[in-house]
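Might I ask for a little of your time on a matter of protein folding? The record follows directly beneath this note:
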Amino acid sequence: MKNKVAVIGLGLIGGSLALELKKRFDWTIVGVDSNEIHAQKALELGIVDEISDFSVVKTADLVVLAVPVNYAPQLASEVLDAIKDTALVFDVGSTKENICKKVVKHSKRVNFVAVHPIAGTEFSGPEAAIYNLFDGKVNIICDRELSSTEAIEKTLAIFEGLKMRTIFMNSSEHDKHIAYVSHLSHISSFMLGKTVLEIEKDEKNIFDMAGSGFESTVRLAKSSPKMWSPIFIENKKNILTSLDEYIKNLNDFRSLIVNENTEELQESMASTNYIREILNGIKK
C-alpha cells in the first residue's frame, strides 16, 4: 500500500513538498488548508490527490506541517494527540525553538522531527509550488536526540530523496543563526523597497533606472507579509539583536560618508568582500 501523507498548509513549501513526494516516492498526498480557495487550487493543479480536513491525520503515515510559525506549535501538539503510533510528523517552519518547547513533554514527542528545509522563492500560495525547489539545498534537523531513531531515519531518507543535504543543530542555536542569515535579509529587502517607494514618487523612474543590483536586493520584498510578520515576532529576541548590529553598521558607514573618509570606506567594503569566499565555498 502507498504511504498516505497529510500536508497541512498548501503554500510554496507545503505545495512543493507535496509535488515532490508524489513524484519521487509515489505516495498519496492529502491536502489540508484552512483557506478553501487554496485547497481547491492545489487540487486543480494536481499538487494533492485529494482534499480533507484535520481528521485525516488519524490515518496518515506522515503529517507535514507547513503553516505560519505562529500556528505551528499548537497545531503540532494537536496533531501528535491524534496520530497513530507509527506516524511521523515534521514541521518545515523557519523558527524552531517555540515549537520544540511546546511538544517537548508530549507522550509522542519521539514521533516528531523539527526540520527546516532552507529553500524558497519570493512567491506564495499553491500557484507558487514548483518541482526541484529543494535540489542541492540544505535541510536542518533540530533537537534530534528528542526524536526516535526510526523517525530520524525516515526523515533523512525523505530529504535525501529530495536531494537535500541535512545538518543537525539545537533549536535555540538554529533560531539565532537563521535570524542573521535569513530573517535579517528579508527585513533589509522590505525596508529598502519601502525607502525607495517613499523617496521616489515617480514609479516610471524606479522602473527605468533600477538595475540588476536593486532588483536582486529588493527581490525578497515581494514575499508574503502574512508569512513573514509571524516569523519576525516568533524570533523577536534574535532578530532584534541582529537588527541592532545591522543598524550600528549602517550608522558607522553613514559617518564615513559624512566625513568623506574614502580610505576607511574602501576598507569596510573590502573586508566585507570575504562573504563571497564563504558563499562560494558553500555552493561548491
In short: The longest helix spans residues 171-199. The chain has a mean pLDDT of 92.
